[in-house]
Amino acid sequence: MPYRNMSLDDFARYVGLDAREVQKLADRGKLPGQKVGGEWRFNQARVTEWLQQEMPSLDESRLVTLERAMGGGADDGSMIVTDLIGLEGIDSAMRANTKGSVLRELVKLAERTGLLYDPEGLLAALEAREEMCSTGLQHGVAIPHPRQPMSYVSAEPLVCVARTSRGIGFGSPYGELSRLFFLICCHDDRHHLRVLARLMRILTPDTIEAVMAVDSREKLLKALIEKETQVVEAVR
User: Fold this and answer.
1) pLDDT value for 53
2) Among residues 9, 10, 47, 5, which one has the least CA distance to residue 30?
3) Domain for residue 221, yes or no?
């Protein structure tokens, strides 16, 4: 389905904000829209890209609001990110020393899940996304993902996790080296944005420290599951 243009009210509903707040933000040039015939219009593809880049700066309440707006509600238990992570999709000692080798190893990791249709297509999409803007975040985390969700690369949505023994220059705008990587591969914009928002809520400094300290894939996944349970329960 082609991406459509949204009105100001459509945009407000899409991101879970009050239309009056959206109007103020748009008038201040804070949103990815343009005026057509005196009315604000927002392209959904551009909105998705904007949300991906803005996500790290959102606080907990805004992340919860965004999860709910993307469908199903952030507190209804219908989406659990750690359900998308299998042990076969975790590498607690990934061998990589450059950004390019990280992306290649993450694709290989996704292949091990048996869910990946198109490794070459996924790698190309990850590289294109990184060329646009690094997915490196604070606290040594990076979350590589395609610029736009693609249903043809995998049979089901998946998340893979990998650690490296030393920091890698991933182009983080925060000037930090990256050691913990989450590959996201979803099939539609809403699910992709919900997964990304949930990960932002899970990956607190304490959780990152715990994940980096464990000595097995099982313990790594357990630490993530425990934190996700906490963030889901916190808003019920």
Assistant:
1) 85
2) 47
3) yes
Residue 62 covered by a domain: no
Q: Which residues are catalytic?
A: 145
> What pTM value is reported for the model?
0.90
Helix (H) or strand (E) holding 39: strand 39-43
For the domain that residue 38 is a member of, what is the CATH number? 1.10.1660
Distance CA 200, CA 194 (A): 10
**88 shares a domain with 47:** no
Q: Quickly state the pLDDT bin for 74 (edges 50, 70, 90).
A: very low
* Contacting residues for 116 by C-beta, under 8 A, at least 6 apart: 107, 110, 122, 153, 154, 155, 158, 185
Q: In sequence order, which ranges of 70-118 are alpha helices (DSSP H)?
A: 99-112
Write phi, then psi, for 159 (nearest 5 degrees): -130, 130
Give the DSSP letter of residue 87.
G
